[in-house]
Amino acid sequence: MTTPKKYLQIIFPFFNTRRTKEIFRINPTVIPVREEAKETTIYVYDYNASTLTEKDLKSVEACFPFKDNNNISWINIDGIRKTEVETLCHHYGIHYLLMEDILSIGQRPKMDEVDDVLFCLLNMLYFNDKEGAVETEQISIVLGKKFILSFQEFKDKDVFNPLREKLRISNTRLRQSNADYLCYSMIDLIVDNYYNVLEKLGEKIEELEEEIIRYGNTRSLARISSLRKELIVLKRNIAPVRDMVNGFLRSDSELLEERTQKYFKDVYDHIVQASDLVENYRDMMITLQDLYMNKVNLKLNEVMKVMTIVTCLLAPATIIGGIFGMNFDVIPLAHQQAGFYIALGLMFLIPVWMIFTFKRRGWF
Questions:
Q1: What DSSP string runs through 166-194?
Q2: d(CA 57, CA 241)
Q3: Within 10 A of 47 (CB to CB), how many other CB atoms are there?
Q4: Is 85 exposed, middle or buried (0-12, 13-18, 19+ CB in 10 A)?
């Protein structure tokens, strides 16, 4: 037997509550279990001002020679496996608490300074046009002396291609700077990609506004609910990044050069602006919901006005018909040949006069 909820999901897919469960399923008191990646991809970019070595490695053990070679090494792993993460982190002296954060899921974006490394965790955001939903990918970045370790969940989604292109050019600022500038560049690319997602969502909101103004049906209400859920995802992932970047600005670590601080300040300005934009979108969604309710009330008022006018126009005919239908022996015009036509004429002329009066007074 098909339940009402099933009917709603068939007619209006936006009524599906699966997305709501995905958004609110995170419970910080329960340790989630990460599913091991079926395959991993390991890329190493070992460079200095004059040379660049770019390699695709088959195992994490092959990364060991790049430590303490006086070059800057960026080791990026796509696909998280517990044994590989622990092996690489043990070799580079990463604290076990940071390893737990790398292996965790559903973490809030944050920045930590443990021992001789700086650690930050945040989410890359993508907009799925097919589903109309915001997708997230957790990325962990470990900044050490002359090395960067980055851990991503998927290899088919990445925003770092412009960074790789810059690394291949010898005279770029990236090649001339230390590892902290590479860390800034990675965070900056992730934050800049937030604006692409916000732009996509902004287009959806504009389309929804036009749809509400033109139609304002039940589907519009479902889309309002759907977009508000996606804004929750954006706020949850963007707002904490402000504190994360602020952690780099306040840090006194020797890993961060003074000249790099101004670049993190620029990222901070961008993330504040993105956070404000999310708040503006949330306010706009509330406005659209009010607009939808006003549209529904306006339609209801129009229907009630028409029904009221029809009722008023039928009232004279009802009264006349009721009078001449009474069971009395003597009724004026009842026994005259023209009585029927006179009554019918009154039933027609009086509503016409009422329509003229209503129109003159601007009632419709």
A1: HHTSTTSHHHHS-HHHHHHHHHHHHHHHH
A2: 31
A3: 19
A4: buried
Give CA–CA dist 148/142, Å, rounded: 6
Q: Over the chain, what is the mean pLDDT?
A: 85
Instruction: Report which of 175, 190, 192, 173 is spatially closest to residue 259, judged by C-alpha positions.
Output: 173
Out of 25-34, 101-110, 191-200, pick the least confident. Answer: 25-34
Give the integer Cα–Cα distance in Å for 116 and 254.
Answer: 9
Query: Distance from first CA to last CA of the chain, Å, rounded?
Result: 47
Task: Look at domain 304-360 and name its CATH class.
Answer: mainly alpha
Give pLDDT tens digits for 136-177. 899 999 999 889 999 998 877 788 888 999 999 888 889 888
- Find tokens 């020679």 and name the residue: 65
Q: Give the list of residues 6+ apart from residue 178 with CB closer than 8 angstroms, or none.
A: 72, 146, 257, 260
Tell me the pTM. 0.79
Enter the tokens of residue 192: 């800049």
Confidence class for position 358, pLDDT limits 50, 70, 90: confident
Residue ranges per domain, the chain? 4-295, 304-360
Give the separation between CA 33 and CA 325, rounded to whole angstroms. 82
Answer yes or no: are the C-beta atoms of 108 and 85 closer than 8 Å.
Answer: no
Long-range contacts at 208-214 (CB < 8 A, ≥ 24 apart): 208/288, 209/284, 209/288, 209/291, 212/288, 212/291, 212/292, 212/295, 213/291, 213/295
CATH topology of domain 4-295: Beta Polymerase; domain 2 (3.30.460)
Same-fold call for 4-295 versus 304-360: no
